[in-house]
Amino acid sequence: MHKKDKDIKGLDDSTPITTQGPLDRAEEFVDTFAAGFIYAAAIGELVRQTLEVDRMLETMDEEEKEKLLPTLRADMLELDMKWVLATKMFAIDA
Length: 94
Prior knowledge:
Layout: H1 3-9, H2 26-59, H3 62-89
């Protein structure tokens, strides 16, 4: 590209190549894509943990429930807080 072409387009040598042409905002796309992937993985883990606690509650007999209920309540409270945080991060009203 000639000096005259740069002047016409308003570009200079200090402008990063990713902010020009078809690659404009490419880094933002990659960041957004990566954040979405991480968020989806975190939600998947929350779903897995929630289903695990639910399954444990359904399959326990009364004696096991008496022994483990305080621990399971703490786990359920922690999961609820994580769900609230996850929905706030994604701006979802839960």
